[in-house]
Amino acid sequence: MNDQVMQNFLIKRAFLTPDRPAIHFAGITYTFSEAYNRAHTIAGQLAGCGLKKGQYAGALLSNHVDTVFVYLACHLLGVKAVILNNRLTAAEIAWQMKDSQSAFLITESRFSSKYRELEETLPNITIINKEVLFESSVSPPLIVDEINLNEVCTIMYTSGTTGHPKGVLQTYGNHWWSAIGSALNLGLTEEDCWLCTVPLFHISGYSILMRSIIYGMKMVVLESFDEKEAINIIRNEKVTIMSVVSTMLTRMEEKLKEDKLPAQFRCMLLGGGPASKALLEKCQAKQIPVYQTYGMTETSSQIVTLSPEYSFSKLGSAGKALFPSQLKIVRTNGEKASPTEAGEILVKGPNVTKGYLNKKEETKSKIVDGWLSTGDIGYLDEEGFLYVLDRRSDLIISGGENVYPAEIEGILASHPAISDAGVIGLKDEQWGEVPAAFIVKRKEINEVDILQFCQQKLAKYKIPKKVMFIEEIPRNAAKKILRRELRKLLE
Amino acid sequence: MNDQVMQNFLIKRAFLTPDRPAIHFAGITYTFSEAYNRAHTIAGQLAGCGLKKGQYAGALLSNHVDTVFVYLACHLLGVKAVILNNRLTAAEIAWQMKDSQSAFLITESRFSSKYRELEETLPNITIINKEVLFESSVSPPLIVDEINLNEVCTIMYTSGTTGHPKGVLQTYGNHWWSAIGSALNLGLTEEDCWLCTVPLFHISGYSILMRSIIYGMKMVVLESFDEKEAINIIRNEKVTIMSVVSTMLTRMEEKLKEDKLPAQFRCMLLGGGPASKALLEKCQAKQIPVYQTYGMTETSSQIVTLSPEYSFSKLGSAGKALFPSQLKIVRTNGEKASPTEAGEILVKGPNVTKGYLNKKEETKSKIVDGWLSTGDIGYLDEEGFLYVLDRRSDLIISGGENVYPAEIEGILASHPAISDAGVIGLKDEQWGEVPAAFIVKRKEINEVDILQFCQQKLAKYKIPKKVMFIEEIPRNAAKKILRRELRKLLE
């Protein structure tokens, strides 16, 4: 419990530093005062549609400054926003809307085919199209001046490898402490500016917005990731920090050629799995400071981070838990694992979710005494640095040996002729399961070359027994590999 | 309530950044790992004396690195430290020891005359002399690995202008949120280093220690303030931030002559009342960035801060409440005052004390719905900047008009021939009370000159009716004027 009252974050920020830049989008910069005024107007328009404090409302929106204002309007109203991944099908959206009992869906014309389909399956839901909303009359909104850190701010559904997705409750406190933990690790200066090219509907993007409000920091929003545009905007808008995943970082590093990022740029926050040594070396050569992280929707973004000074001595590590948080590795019987012994990763801290929406039993079994079972497998080295091995559900067990796909993928991706790789388990008469690899080529390479390369790097049982070449590794919005898609390809 | 569990701050910090410099004292720098080891050893020695989690222990110590280690040892043991002002008489110390029911007093030889007297009046108290303690055997201490932010960390007695002092409960959460509020305002970089020349037994000094642990920042401790030594150590130890009161800042500014502080120095955090315009102008000329603040023991240091960019446009203001905190001005009937209308200052936030030790009734009357009545008088301007007028108990009421001593002192101190000034109320047949001024001269000046100067600056009823010249204005450890001492001089 984090039962602490504070002033509404946006109101406080607009009061403290009204004239500081808050958001830059499509060539226009908005101050905190302007952001507050826009959010206040939208809050009035949403109130006119019937939205009230405590209600759930779906938000199906693109990466746009309007989306930021809509999210902030929800803060002002005390509306719990169910943040929808805009790549979902109408059926998947319907499922999340029903599960969260959202009576409203705030969306925009570009998703009209989806919400029209939705209107048929869920006729009782009020669809609010932002283009219409922004032209509507403004009711005087009932503004929530004080919030309790224990109140739910947002709901984000986790993709889940099996079964239906679960709605992760993210409180104001979860977002607050996540921002504070990050600031204590990365520092904070008045010159800071965070580039958001990741989806705002994902915690990686939403957490940048929360940091912007809490820190009084400018955020730059792009509609989507493009390496050339990202590099240009880092230069033009004096960006100091950017959130990336490996594939984005690879593309930026390649695009930079002989250039360097400007001196003010101080942090490339890398999520979604460890980077290859080859990529880290290239980044070091171009003085790109890479902070590797581990986090998830349930921890409101990063909870474990590795500073650049450890990039090489602790290659592949995600680092240590941020100041407000803790982590431990446990055996299947619940005992604490010894150093270097792999087990399930458990995390605890004020940024950790209090549970899943309307899922008391699942919450109880996943969170015990404040410790969340992540389902991920990892170990701590002698100095307490975390190494994430894999998602438990993706674990390949081959002849009694544990095989972690991410490890093999890391090796494959380090080959100069391979640009991306994905590994899954393949049923096998003799061994139960064996690894199978999907390869995206950068240059010409064949199966024999790849297997020879693996033989130098991997124990025999870890070497893929099947190699397939494809155009692209299927990944979700968070750039995590969709192994079930790979499995379909195999079939 | 701030019922949040976290790892013990020192344990976490020593784990995260063991090799970073933590404390510099008398030419020696200790890393966080070394600080942890020293504190752990002392915790073992204190455990050997019988100290246990949850107990209260008095600490009568000087500004010294050992004091830092003793305080941190108390954190490790979960002992609540009653931090004693070492300028107190034995009788005053005895009162605080009895009030807090402390069974132990951790002290050092230089205070032997005080603690010997104490041994006679309170024979049941165990006196622990640090010089003896540090030579004693080490018992394995029972370390508190996790703390709850709601637990009491320290007790500090407020001086109080009337009656007995009250023990202010400062929780781990109070200290934590104070540090976070400050970081969100001042920023935080890996190069930061905070100079502590104020007493460690005062919240201004103790809060620097807490920031050091929470931020992973070096603190430099001096035994006492000396302007030459302070300037030298800012240069040699690359200090970036220093806590001062006006008199210290005046002396440093004068000492600097034509020099400037090095470029890395970024913040002079000024507490204990507003600075004169003359001082601010001189500081500006020497590029000393002054952040004016308002705070008290009950708020675990600053709660309101003014950035340098507002130094002149908001001259005399203490600024706005830090991000996690709120403030309001109320009339005597409890209603919110209008902008520019003076009233009592009320503050709220997670850094505000939960009350006074063993004083339920006083706590209830001082803290209502989380709002602490400070007893101080001030107003907010149209933009919400706070102007502190005076301590309520020092208010002079003259012919029905309110006269605020601090205002007159500010005017007097701005005269080039006056180095310091103190004002109190003097009983008067006609007006009830009239202001009387005590002056410390810088150059030759007489009463007529001073009154002429005041006539240009102050309404008639505010002009001192009596002017006395003295050698020094009596101030407490926090450099607040001891008006009752001035009153004695008058008698």
UniProtKB/TrEMBL annotation, chains A, B:
Converts 2-succinylbenzoate (OSB) to 2-succinylbenzoyl-CoA (OSB-CoA). Keywords: ATP-binding, Ligase, Menaquinone biosynthesis, Nucleotide-binding. One of its GO terms (molecular function) is o-succinylbenzoate-CoA ligase activity. It catalyses: 2-succinylbenzoate + ATP + CoA = 2-succinylbenzoyl-CoA + AMP + diphosphate. Belongs to the ATP-dependent AMP-binding enzyme family. MenE subfamily. Pathway: Quinol/quinone metabolism; menaquinone biosynthesis; Quinol/quinone metabolism; 1,4-dihydroxy-2-naphthoate biosynthesis; 1,4-dihydroxy-2-naphthoate from chorismate: step 5/7. GO terms for biological process: menaquinone biosynthetic process. Residues 16-357 form the AMP-dependent synthetase/ligase domain. The keyword ATP-binding applies. It comes from Cytobacillus depressus. Its EC number is 6.2.1.26. Gene3D superfamilies: 3.30.300.30, N-terminal domain of ligase-like (3.40.50.12780). SUPFAM superfamilies: Acetyl-CoA synthetase-like. This is 2-succinylbenzoate--CoA ligase. Residues 407-480 form the AMP-binding enzyme C-terminal domain. PROSITE patterns: AMP_BINDING (PS00455).
